[in-house]
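Two records follow; treat each independently.
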Amino acid sequence: MRILMINKFLHPNGGSETYIFKLSQQLEKMGHEVQFFGMNHENRVVGNRVNAYTTNMDFHGGSKLSKLTYPIKTVYSAESRRKIRKVLEDFRPDVCHLNNFNYQLTPSVILEIRAWAKKEKRSCKILFTAHDYQLLCPNHMCKNPQTGENCEKCLSGRFSHCTKGRCIHGSRMKSMVGAFEARFWKWKKVYKHLDGIICCSAFMKSKMDTNPIFADKTVVMHNFVDRVSPVDLPKEDYVLYFGRFSEEKGIDTLLKVCKELPQIPFRFAGTGPLEPLLQDVPNIRNLGFLRGEELKKLIGQARFTVYPSQWYENCPFSVMESQMYGTPVLGAEIGGIPELIEPGKTGELFESGNAEALKNAILHLWANPSLTEEYAAHCKEATFDTVEQYCEKLIKLYT
């Protein structure tokens, strides 16, 4: 089977890139042929046989002239249609697997795939993995950055709320462009051409299904994780948060609680815009960004980890990774997080954004080490799909 993987970035940039790189490696091991389409970049690590890619678009940099054309290019891209046509004609894929494509590649690529397939009189399935809420919400998070509140107003299909709330980078102009982009493609009914939508949580599926066009196309497939050898490290006396230090991750709430619990040592590992605030809390030890064995040891030796997110998380890898290394998770009851934690077995849940509830939950777990030891034993029995198992399911969707 020939599979064309489509993603705006073809270099290591975030979770969706890790996803497509690992998927493609496994699919090739299974005997399938995989090529890629997206933007060109000096750090690009995957590609296609005809070297056809779109021009790199940097919304946070670039020349003044290029920025003037961005409002048009983010809605519709003739270049994307022209370049992907070259790949389609050469590679002749059986499946086109879309990932993050809005604003840089634009849904124009969907129209071109269907036009090519019709001209060639051949079947070419189009699948989409929803890594966020982009098809429902122009700022992709279902969260108003101005108020900090989770928001579902655009799920009604009235994207003017994005402009009113200045939901994209706090800019009315950018928000207006985002709202127009969503309205334009809704009018063009482009998403009816998707054959299937992979949602990484049942929560995300429930939101996607509010759109009648998507409702009969969605399927839940939680993210895959690498198979790891059992970790049996002696537990140490600290509570761990690892991930991004940002407002939507609930860092403000967690810091407030840390200050009120000076008797409990906390360790933080990661980076982000709120990192300077950690310096004001004496019982927090900030270890910065870690990876590999160093991070594995840090997770494995924690009494428990905290995941206090305050936005509609999808399928956070940190929650799964913690359990894989034998450490229970205290997670916010929001988005897809509750789907990954068995309360009373592999961790506990608390009301997202509720500092008092978080504080009480931390105190409860900290005061009962035998309970966290019991949870840790259950964590080692937790099972999540490996990339091999995930790809077996994926092939069934492809065919």
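The next record belongs to a different protein.
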Amino acid sequence: MMLRIICLLSLLTLGCAQTFVHEQSISVSFSPNAGATAAVVDLISQAKHRIRVAAYGFTSKEIAKALLEAHKRGVDVQVVLDKSNATSKYSSATFLANVGIPVRINYKYAIMHNKFMVVDDVTTETGSFNFTKAAELHNAENLIVLRNHPDIGMQYLDQWQMLWDEAEPYQAKY
């Protein structure tokens, strides 16, 4: 307790106060029907400044709507998706692009199989969980949220930026 008080009062101790103000945490969720989509939607709802998404499959209406709500709040949202989203019968790419969220399609890899999101540069969501209804209702999937881990967030942001830079803007179908 005394260390916490000293850290909070001392402006000379780099990072000490921030450690206690923004507690780090790790949470896990699973599917089917065990809260994975809800965990992603909740994370999006907490965003203040920026969301970066890299996804293989993306058909979840709940997650797409949460990204739209974040966009409406002024959060800078950008999404990079696997090439399968450019030709699938339904992809959230169309919805997102039509509401003004920048979407790019990565054609470089046989499969751009990433499934992660970085929120406000410091919180990372990752795991096997695809942003799809099937993943929520039928598949055995997992996700982990690492809150207030800026070192991990920056590594994922570097990867996201590489994927974004090598991708092409999505052309919405309608």
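Discussion point: The chain has one domain: 24-169. How would you locate this feature using only the token line?
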